Amino acid sequence: MPEQQDVQAPQPMDEWLLKLLACPACPQHYPLSYDAAKSVLVCHCGRYAFPVGSDGIPNLLVTDDKIINSDADPSKCPPPQGGN
Ligand SMILES: [Zn+2]
Known about the structure:
Layout lengths: L14 H6 L11 E4 L4 E4 L5 E3 L33
Bound molecules: zinc ion.
């Protein structure tokens, strides 16, 4: 039986990919959460946000423009939920 699948635009952010990603900026490598409204991956520490392109590829280069809250200190951030 023939299979027909509609080719659609890639998902903005795959959940499995999201689970694999960790913040490249923090020494603790906190998990990132996806903000669909802004198309950004926000670090658990709240200091960094990484834009996700229309192709679903996140820009994880650590540059100054990724800092959304310079007051947030990753070293003082409580560990994320679900961890040990
Ligand atoms: Zn971070």
